[in-house]
Design a protein that fits this description.
Largest sheet: 6 strands, mixed
Shape: globular
CATH topology of one domain: Lambda Exonuclease, Chain A
Structural class: alpha+beta
Number of helices: 11
Distance between the termini: 72 Å
Radius of gyration: 25 Å
CATH class of one domain: Alpha Beta
């Protein structure tokens, strides 16, 4: 075996304490998912270490696939479930698992065949998820050529034997090796490549450790195609302490799902999207938080942060203007730690809407559309 070019991941994640449109799954889809799950447990003879082969994914339609996803935490959900996914918050994941949001594709940084769930693949050929899925078999093939290991598809949702809510989809399993048993295939584009500079990103480590927890296997290789031309391979060994902590935190998140209570929102854009989707309209009610010290303290902290931001913006503007004045008509300025460019953009042609409304009001009325309003968060000081 030529495994000399497989890097071993050293640093494990530290687990601290604990356009999206509603499209509810049909009751029939949920029933199909439950039926396939029961059939999978009853008829499967193929084993994947300790894991149950819950559902065969080869014939799943999208609605049933989404319904299966809602029955537990998959490996691609693991980092979000414990609050360590840079693209998805616990709140957004909770909304997906409770049927309030449709499962959404990840953004460019996470461009990869994350899920191995072909029924959920995006049809958008500009999507990183699309290309991650298209390139997955190529990554697996070249991994096998480079390492000499034999790999094969699993085509199933796997389930932890003790924690039924722990699910996993493996891109490939490695056959006949004592060194490694699981292969996770990734692709990293221009924006995502920087996340792999120092090894496996934290959220991917958690995804793979979740897979090892479900299957009971000892090691996994992560093969990532970086920039479309460089294949890197990393080895992750089973970490019992990390797995125990991961199961504990995932169980805490799953209680939020089963009890239908939202987890706390964090500072991410994902949480912002989730809150806007969860509470799209106001009902004109006025809540009195004056007798709630904790929320009143949060409000005071927000006032302080806003004040600091305003002061910082003023400082930024002053420094910026000082440098602009020094540059004058120059296009670029060089400094020991970087450079500044100050160039005129290309002229553009635009429609004079004010004049058009005045001179052609009937024409304008033919092209009017309604833009849905959104809630504005405004602070009023006393």
């Amino acid at each position: 075996m030529q495994t000399h070019n497989i890097a071993t991941q050293q640093d494990a994640p530290v687990l601290d304490a604990p356009s999206l449109a509603p499209l509810p799954l049909t009751q029939q889809a949920m029933a199909n998912a439950q039926t396939q799950a029961l059939q999978g447990l009853a008829t499967s003879k193929r084993r994947h270490a300790q894991a149950h082969r819950l559902v065969d994914t080869r014939q799943l339609d999208r609605d049933t696939w989404l319904a299966v996803r809602q029955t537990g935490i998959g490996s691609s959900d693991a980092a979000a479930a414990v609050g360590l996914n840079p693209y998805k918050s616990q709140l957004e994941l909770w909304m997906e698992k409770t049927g309030r949001l449709v499962h959404a594709a990840q953004s460019d940084g996470q461009a990869s065949a994350d899920t191995g769930e072909s029924s959920g693949v995006s049809d958008d050929d500009n999507s990183p998820l699309f290309w991650g899925t298209v390139l997955e078999p190529i990554v697996a093939e070249h991994y096998a050529k480079r390492t000499g290991f034999k790999v094969r598809r699993v085509n199933a949702v796997l389930q932890h034997p003790e924690h039924a809510w722990m699910l996993a989809n493996l891109d490939r399993e490695v056959v006949g090796s004592d060194e490694v048993q699981v292969l996770e295939c990734k692709t990293a584009g221009v924006n995502g490549a920087k996340l792999w500079k120092n090894g496996i990103p934290e959220y991917v480590q958690l995804q793979v450790m979740h897979q090892l927890a479900v299957t009971g296997q000892q090691a996994a290789d992560v093969a990532v195609l970086v920039g479309g031309h460089e294949l890197r391979i990393f080895r992750l060994e089973r970490d019992e302490a990390l797995i125990a902590r991961l199961i504990l935190l995932e169980a805490e998140f799953w209680r939020h799902v089963t009890e239908d209570t939202p987890p706390p929102a964090d500072a991410s854009d994902s949480a912002d999207r989730a809150l806007r989707a969860l509470f799209p309209k106001d009902d004109h009610e006025v809540l009195d938080f004056t007798e709630q010290p904790e929320l009143s303290e949060v409000f005071e902290q927000l006032l302080v942060v806003r004040s600091v931001l305003d002061d910082t913006k003023q400082q930024e503007a002053q420094l910026k203007h000082q440098l602009q004045q020094a540059m004058g008509t120059a296009s670029e300025a060089l400094f020991p730690n970087g450079r500044i460019t100050w160039k005129k953009s290309t002229d553009t042609r635009t429609v004079d809407l004010t004049r058009l409304k005045q001179e052609q009001p009937e024409l304008i009325s033919q092209y009017l559309t309604v833009k849905p309003g959104s809630r504005r968060f405004v602070i009023h000081n006393r």
